What we know:
Largest sheet: 2 strands, antiparallel
Strand content: 15-25%
Number of strands: 4
Order of helices and strands: HEEHHEE
Distance between the termini: 58 Å
Helix content: 10-25%
Low-confidence stretches: none
Number of helices: 3
Amino acid sequence: xxxxxxxxxxxxxxxxxxxxxxxxxxxxxxxxxxxxxxxxxxxxxxxxxxxxxxxxxxxxxxxxxxxxxxxxxxxxxxxxxxxxxxxxxxxx
Length: 92
């Protein structure tokens, strides 16, 4: 496939490429140089990435302690026990 660089440096990605990667108007692409090659990567900016680090885990010292409780593994929490409900909630 080929694309021609327009006067202002713009190119149009072939429809097959846009469709294969799910690219639509407003999709952010990361542009990287690898030697003499231009590499375009679809930016992975989803709801999970944007929310990362914004929530506090009440009742747990850190994420590792919460994960141990969810998995039913003993941790270094002083006498802390947790029960995981059918809906995934954790009771301490």
